[in-house]
Design goal:
With 181 residues, the protein is mainly alpha-helical. It has two domains: 128 residues; 35 residues, no CATH class. α1 crosses α4, α1 packs antiparallel against α7 and α4 packs across α7.
Length: 181
C-alpha cells in the first residue's frame, strides 16, 4: 500500500461512501457519481506529484475492467459495480486497486457467509457454488442452468457490493495511513 495525496484520499473516501450508501438504499450505483470520479481521478493523478500518476491511474482502470468485465458478462457483477471499480482504479492506480479488490473480496466473503447463515441458505449456496464450478468447467455461463445465479434475478441472494467495496476502501486508507507513519 502506498500513501495517496490527501486530495485522492478524500476523493476515494467520498466516492466509496456515497456509492456504498446509495447501493444499500437503492441497489444501484449512479453514473453521476462514478463517471466524474473516474475523470477526476485521472486528472488529479496527472497533476499531482504524489499518488500513482497518470500512467498508474490508467493501468488501474485497465486492471479493474480486465477483472470485472468477465464477471459482468457472467451476470455475477452489476454494471455499476464495474464502473465503480474502474473509478477506484483511476483514483488509486493498479496497485491500490488490487489491494482494495483483495480487501473487499475478504470482507465480502465474510459478509456472504453471515448472510447465507442468517437466511438459512447454506445448503442452497453450496449447491450454487458447485453449479458455478461445473458450468465454468464446461465453458457455460452459470445463470443458464440456474437463473438464481443471475445477479439481476429476484431469487438471487446478493450483497450490496458497493457497500463492501466502501469498507475495503476504508481499510485500504487506514492501512495506508498506518504504513505512512
Amino acid at each position: 500500500m502506498t500513501a495517496l495525496a490527501p486530495a485522492l484520499q478524500v476523493l476515494l473516501a467520498a466516492v466509496a461512501l456515497i456509492a456504498g450508501v446509495y447501493d444499500i438504499r437503492y441497489r444501484r450505483i449512479p453514473n453521476w457519481l462514478v463517471l466524474p470520479a473516474l475523470l477526476v481521478g485521472l486528472l488529479l493523478n496527472g497533476f499531482l506529484y504524489y499518488g500513482p500518476g497518470l500512467r498508474e491511474s490508467a493501468l488501474g482502470i485497465g486492471l479493474a475492467l480486465l477483472v470485472d468485465m468477465p464477471l459482468y458478462l457472467l451476470r455475477a457483477r452489476g454494471a455499476g459495480d464495474v464502473k465503480l471499480m474502474a473509478a477506484i482504479g483511476a483514483i488509486v492506480g493498479w496497485r491500490g486497486w488490487l489491494a482494495i479488490f483483495i480487501l473487499s473480496a475478504i470482507l465480502g466473503g465474510i459478509f456472504a457467509v453471515i448472510l447465507t447463515l442468517a437466511r438459512g441458505r447454506l445448503r442452497q449456496t453450496l449447491w450454487n457454488v458447485g453449479c458455478i464450478l461445473s458450468e465454468m468447467a464446461h465453458f457455460r455461463a452459470p445463470h443458464w442452468r440456474s437463473p438464481e445465479l443471475d445477479i439481476q434475478s429476484p431469487r438471487a441472494l446478493t450483497l450490496p457490493s458497493a457497500a463492501v467495496t466502501a469498507l475495503g476502501c476504508l481499510a485500504f486508507l487506514a492501512g495506508s495511513a498506518i504504513l505512512a507513519r
